[in-house]
TrEMBL record:
Keyword Heme attached: no
A Pfam match: Poly_export
Domain Polysaccharide export protein N-terminal stretches: 40-134
Coiled coil segments of this chain: none
Source organism of this protein record: Carboxylicivirga linearis
Transmembrane segments: 231-250
Highest taxon, organism lineage: Bacteria
Designated name of the protein: Polysaccharide biosynthesis/export family protein
Database matches in InterPro entries: Poly_export, Poly_export_N
Alphabetical UniProt keywords: Membrane, Signal, Transmembrane, Transmembrane helix
PROSITE patterns for this protein: PROKAR_LIPOPROTEIN
């Protein structure tokens, strides 16, 4: 009987995931203490095949402002799909095709730099123009042991790793929070970098913030590799219970 009891306890222990394996940003030394981490966001640079939305206003009549994107002009919507319809695609040489102006080079600039450059060019045609440039259809892909893997679009300027995981419903109980991988493509080079989601120092690292088109993959824990979360616990425990009952019945006789 002692052997059977020990076996039951062992099975229960094996099926449990330690609390320390599912806690984010662990810091044993931090107890009721405010700790600040410096983490400067880098402005995203414009790359070939990016989609850019240009919002141009001026003191001119709307009919004169050839760069106007009045919402009524396109049915009033301003969803990501709507913006994509009126966006400018950067070609493989780094140019966008603007009305009247023609090809305009923006490769390697951030959105503020591109806006300033376009605004100076438009001053030749419009009365005190103001330009705002933003990316369209920024997205990240979250795969692996999360609740809802998939591709997610976002409209904010930046997105961090936890916001991305939140979109995907968080890492599930058998996801390895110590081994998330970020795959990134930049300048014709693909990189793969490991991120430890349990390390509080992640808040101060440049890997805390994702970039458009990043792919986040959460590895399975060893318990999942062994198939423990799909192991037929109920069947095994039911069999052991039945065996105990039968054994007791025989012993009593």
């Amino acid at each position: 009987m002692k052997t059977i009891t020990s076996l039951i306890i062992l099975l229960v222990v094996l099926g449990c995931v330690p609390q320390k394996d599912i806690i984010y940003l662990q810091d044993e030394a931090m107890v009721d203490t405010l700790v600040k981490y410096t983490n400067e966001n880098e402005k995203i640079k414009i790359k070939a095949f990016d989609q850019l939305y240009l919002q141009v206003t001026s003191l001119d009549d709307g009919r004169i402002n050839f760069m106007s994107n009045d919402a009524n002009r396109y049915g009033g919507g301003r969803s990501e799909n709507d913006l994509a319809m009126v966006s400018y695609v950067v070609d493989d040489k780094g140019n966008i095709q603007l009305p009247i102006i023609g090809q305009f080079y923006v490769l390697g600039l951030n959105t503020d730099e591109a806006a300033n450059k376009i605004q100076k060019e438009l001053e030749m045609y419009l009365n005190e123009p103001t330009v705002k440039v933003s990316f369209v259809n920024k997205n990240i892909t979250v795969l692996g042991y999360v609740e809802n893997p998939g591709r997610y679009f976002y409209a904010t300027e930046h997105i961090n790793i936890f916001q991305a995981l939140g979109m995907a419903g968080d890492v599930n109980v058998y996801g390895n929070r110590k081994y998330a991988v970020v795959v990134r493509e930049e300048n014709n080079t693909v990189t793969k970098q490991r991120i430890d989601l349990t390390d509080v120092d992640l808040l101060g690292k440049n890997t805390f913030y994702l970039k458009p088109n990043d792919v986040v993959y959460v590895e399975p824990m060893n318990k999942r590799k062994w198939g423990i979360d799909t192991f037929p616990w109920a069947l095994i425990l039911s069999g052991i219970t039945t065996f105990i009952l039968v054994a007791n019945y025989i012993n009593n006789d």
